[in-house]
Amino acid sequence: MLIDTHAHLDFPEFADDLPAVLRRAADAGVARIITIGTGVESSRRAVALAEQFDPVYAAVGVHPGNADREPDDAVRQLAPLTAHPKVVAIGECGIDYHHLPERGAAESDADYERRLTPWCERQRRFFQQQLALAADRGLNVIVHQRRSWDDTLTVLAPWHGKVRAVFHCFGESLERANLLLRHHHLVSITGIVTFKNAQVVRDTVSGLPDGTFMVETDSPYLAPVPHRGKRCEPAFVRQTAETVAALRGQDLASLAAATGRTAAAFFRFPPTR
Q: pTM surpassing 0.85?
């Protein structure tokens, strides 16, 4: 059973043909899809899609890249959504230092640093609030980490044993993956693993123990080979899974079964209708 554990079905790229997208996913053997909220309104749309389509489940959260655009009480506004039976996680949440605020042409180092500090603090604060919400509601978290490894682990550390995390779109070394696995967190692999220049991810996937990772698309982004450069969609998780299986010397059926069990245990899907 293939499960796409991370897609953004509420994004405008799917506005015109979502039913067809879901049919193609089913034809590819994808039994469940988790659509991920990136802010308050996005999370509400995710829940609405989960209500509308049986294979779709939702996660609700504030993406770190949206922290400066969401209201101060965004996490409080997310809280009522967690009562929905098809909400299976908080996220995506975390810290992202890749897309920094633009620096003014005449801005000094000191002035830029003063402006950057509250921006970073706001990301960390939203992350902490979402970890607290997850612990309170008995949910796990989907973590977005980009160029923020140390700060992300520092914020997460007090929650070891209280909340489990999956680091989505994992692109780090096996050594870093093992740091997470030590605390019973997981990683999730995207279509990047099919790229020829993604040797770090391929090496990591080869060495991960069974039961420690899942597969995802991050649709509409990161379409795997042979679809690279096109809109990604949940059906393409099959190509990612095939590549992961080949790297690990498994067949697709056993890889799909293993990652499906891992996802079902982590997200604790409610019984099907």
A: yes
